[in-house]
Design brief:
Layout lengths: L2 H5 L12 E7 L5 E7 L1 H10 L3 E4 L4 E4 L8 E8 L6 E7 L29 H4 L2
Length: 128
């Protein structure tokens, strides 16, 4: 986003006690890497530095992803959703590329099995 766009775009921090979710996506692969939360201060810092900075809900402080590991998230593009209350950061991961604190590329590594009875057929199959 350019500066003119961000100045005219108000992110809605009012819904989750001053926080908005920030989804991090690998710009090259499209893979979802992680989700964190941003407050107004971390959002400004993110835009100013070009690296994703979250608000740590447990430590109650700003947290730039990769500040200790070196796996920083350099922003390529930033988007908001239609309600302006969720952010999407398309990034290039610096360092060894392991984003998750468990040593994996993505935090999304634990599949949840669905029982077959819970899986509905595509809508096109139900309109026969």
């Amino acid at each position: 986003m350019n500066a003119e766009t961000t100045e005219n775009l108000a992110i809605d921090f009012s819904k989750l006690d001053g926080l908005v979710p920030g989804i991090v996506q690998d710009a090259a692969t499209g893979n979802m890497l992680m989700v964190g939360f941003l407050n107004e201060e971390s959002y400004r810092k993110t835009l100013d530095t070009g690296f994703v900075t979250f608000w740590s809900r447990t430590r109650k402080k700003l947290w730039m992803k990769g500040e200790t590991s070196g796996n920083r998230l350099r922003i390529v593009e930033t988007f908001t959703d239609c309600d302006n209350d969720t952010l999407l950061f398309r990034v290039v991961v610096e360092g060894d590329g392991l984003v998750c604190h468990e040593g994996t590329v993505s935090c999304f590594t634990k599949p949840i099995p669905l029982r077959s009875a819970e899986i509905l057929p595509p809508e096109s199959e139900t309109k026969a």
